[in-house]
């Protein structure tokens, strides 16, 4: 299912968070959102998983306007793994993962097994099966992040939205998650700060700057030293990955590689 933000602006408390934003994720592709802090990536994603309503413009899920769907219908289509996964109540891991089924109609008793197996598969995929009985409050940040990813998978969405999903993850779990995103066949919108991971994982990358998208293209098209310098104020060396050829960025700490942020 393709996802389009068409001329979306979000205004809040007198400020414009994103302005006339146009973004298109093709069906089944992994679209990366990269950009400096505060450039509007999370706000754009929140519009897709319906945490905020655009002040103007339209979000399309396939050929349907998001606002035409009931919250339950859109939750069956879009699953989100957000940045803030603080939890208040100490549900167990297994209970939390099973909450991913909430948007779906209750299943007859004979289908309960398949829900259970869905949860088990998601927990195995995210490497949390051995934590099933643990309370969420007792988990590390990375373990909790993997629980939220498992819950999103159990939702069986067509569109997966992830806001900095690798933040708390160690390198093995980062690679495992990104490999899954590449292989899952879902339409994925993922905000990533690590441009090298974005290059490895994404079919295309949308570069954000100051509340709108400044360029979109394949990793090799947008992750150039010129674009990175223009958008982030840092000049990397960009070399092809020795085996896959995707661009990888190398940074040095020389002052001439960084513009005006030596505070
Ligand atoms: N609730 C809010 N009230 C006021 N301004 C907000 C609110 N949420 C976000 N903003 C502002 O909107 C702009 C875009 O923020 P957003 O979180 O979308 O950026 P981002 O690109 O995801 O940033 P980061 O990389 O730091 O996560 C920023 O200037 C931010 O300060």
From TrEMBL:
SUPFAM superfamilies in alphabetical order: P-loop containing nucleoside triphosphate hydrolases (SSF52540)
Keyword ATP-binding annotated: yes
Pfam families: ABC_tran
Keywords, sorted A to Z: ATP-binding, Nucleotide-binding, Transport
Regions annotated as coiled coil: none
Annotated ABC transporter domain residues: 3-235
Domain of life: Bacteria
InterPro entries, per the entry: AAA+_ATPase (IPR003593), ABC_transporter-like_ATP-bd (IPR003439), ABC_transporter-like_CS (IPR017871), P-loop_NTPase (IPR027417)
GO molecular function: ATP binding; ATP hydrolysis activity
Protein name from the UniProt record: ABC transporter ATP-binding protein
Lineage: Bacteria, Bacillati, Actinomycetota, Actinomycetes, Actinopolysporales
């Amino acid at each position: 299912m393709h996802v389009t933000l068409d001329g979306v602006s979000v205004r809040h408390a007198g400020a414009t968070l994103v302005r006339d934003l146009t973004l298109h994720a093709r069906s089944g592709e992994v679209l990366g959102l990269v950009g400096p802090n505060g450039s509007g990536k999370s706000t754009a994603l929140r519009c897709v998983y319906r945490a905020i309503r655009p002040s103007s413009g339209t979000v399309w899920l396939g050929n349907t306007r998001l606002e035409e769907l009931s919250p339950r219908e859109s939750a069956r289509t879009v699953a989100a793994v957000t940045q803030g996964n603080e939890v208040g109540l100490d549900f167990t891991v297994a209970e939390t993962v099973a909450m991913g089924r909430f948007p779906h109609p209750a299943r007859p008793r004979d289908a309960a097994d398949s829900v259970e197996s869905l949860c088990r598969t998601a927990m195995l995929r995210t490497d949390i099966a051995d934590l099933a009985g643990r309370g969420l409050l007792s988990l590390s940040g990375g373990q909790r992040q993997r629980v939220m990813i498992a819950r999103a998978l159990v939702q069986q969405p067509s569109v997966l939205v992830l806001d900095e999903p690798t933040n708390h993850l160690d390198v093995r779990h980062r690679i495992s998650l990104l490999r899954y995103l590449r292989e899952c066949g879902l339409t994925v919108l993922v905000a990533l700060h690590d441009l090298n991971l974005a290059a490895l994982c994404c079919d295309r990358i949308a570069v954000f700057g100051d509340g709108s998208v400044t360029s979109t293209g394949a990793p090799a098209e947008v992750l150039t030293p010129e674009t990175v310098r223009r958008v982030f104020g840092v000049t990397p060396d960009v070399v092809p990955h020795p085996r896959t050829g995707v661009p990888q960025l190398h940074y040095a700490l020389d002052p001439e590689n960084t513009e005006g942020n030596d505070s």
